[in-house]
Amino acid sequence: MACDAKNSAEPSLLQCDVCGRRTDLFELPGQRQKYCLECSADVATSILLTTEIDAATISGQETAGLVAEFLQSRRRLLEREQWK
Known about the structure:
Elements: H1 10-13, E1 26-27, E2 34-35, H2 37-58, H3 64-81
Helix pairs in contact: 2-3
């Protein structure tokens, strides 16, 4: 029996690896996990901010604003993770 994507039960079983929400999931380059839209945005932001913080540190620039933004995105992820 052929089964197309619309009739498959598999997509409804997929959960965000952070919050556990059952919804459309996204993969980020270099990441094995799959995330819902909100979590993928925060994970991507955290990855980019880590790179920017490292670059700013190496070049001797101020990092307080970047670190504060990084902590906010990580806090949102931790809060969502508690939803599981």
